[in-house]
Amino acid sequence: MKNLTLKSIDKNNWEEAINLSVREDQQRFIASNLYSIAEVQFLDSFYAKGIFLDDRIIGFTMYGIDSDDHNYWIYRLMIDQKYQGTGLGVHAVKRIVDEIRGMNNQQIPLIMIGYHPENLAAKFVYKKAGFVEGELASWGEQLAALSI
């Protein structure tokens, strides 16, 4: 999907990003975009990006190199509830993976993601994008990995 792009969260679009929302039944699965935008200020090698369809922000992601295991991690990914169920989540994951591949000058072998085991929508999206489930993390999330 060529009209789906990632753009840095900045002073011009942060308010649009924090106004995105998931369905009520999904809210327990993900931190707010406002929290994530604050958190990324203190994480080295992490990026907060808006997911845009043409010129409209439809989602949010935060990804980078985790200092614990030195793999890329997608810490956050959300698609606004108005755009869910359209296949845009899978396309967004593929755009994020492409961007990580393009910046991977350290030859890091994996992109990792963790999600709540009951979040079946996330499980479906990540599997369709090529992620392979692994173990449950000690903090309770289902881990999945993609070789890059």
UniProtKB/TrEMBL annotation:
What Pfam families does its record include? Acetyltransf_1 (PF00583)
Entry-linked PROSITE patterns: GNAT
Q: Which residues form the N-acetyltransferase domain?
A: 4-148
**Which molecular function terms from Gene Ontology are attached?**
acyltransferase activity, transferring groups other than amino-acyl groups
The record's annotation in Gene3D superfamilies points to: 3.40.630.30
Q: Which SUPFAM superfamilies match?
A: Acyl-CoA N-acyltransferases (Nat) (SSF55729)
Query: What top-level branch of life does the organism fall under?
Result: Bacteria
Record-given protein name: GNAT family N-acetyltransferase
> What species does this protein belong to?
Halalkalibacter suaedae
